[in-house]
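[[Per-residue structure]]
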Amino acid sequence: MKLENKVAIVTGGAQGIGKAIATAYVREGADVVIADVDVNAANTTASELQKLGRRVIGIQTDVTNEASVNKMVDKVMADFGHIDILVNNAGLGHFATFMETPINGLDLVINVNIRGVLLCTRSVLPHMMNQKSGSIINISSRVSYQSGRGGVTYAASKAAIDRFSWGLAEEVGKYNIAVNCLKPRGPVRTDSNVRNNPDVDSSKWDNPELMAKAAVFLAAQDARGVTGVVALDEQIMRWHGIPK
């Protein structure tokens, strides 16, 4: 198993892409923490994944709140003793034109998509630096390259994460910590995406398992392997010969 005896935190891991990544990690031998603002959903997902034979727990976590994030990381360290993988997956969008987006909508996108990533990374990094190993995977979006009407705030938040990933990879490489940024190649067929786009044919959208396969590969990396990469899931799989 590629991730045997590793401990992974997946934020927003109760559903969608996060749940697919958490499931793939468990199947590859990792113990997983589902850090999600919806504690009931986190516990439900954890209960499902425990049946696969690894230790999985849910922890209520508001990634925008420093105390909540630190409390989660402290519990992980107390319960597991180490943290090997952090997947900053929690995120959201407010899809309206920039001037139609209320200030609280701007704040929410920035707080979850940027502040949340920074807080979780800042809380986990000292433990990875101390053990001189680790893998951080930030979930971004292809719209960080080019956004259409109604998504500029979301696109800006994801572009910030792209740049953060590049820069952090250089900073922490000396501690043997890999930092990579993973993007779906297109729309992903999650329950929330389908629900929010009732008039769109989602039959050709990607399954979240495609992202999960790429996330498994990246989770197995440290700074001696692949780091500082910002790429689509299909690019990572093609570059490294990972079958779909």
Remarks:
- The chain has eight helices and seven strands.
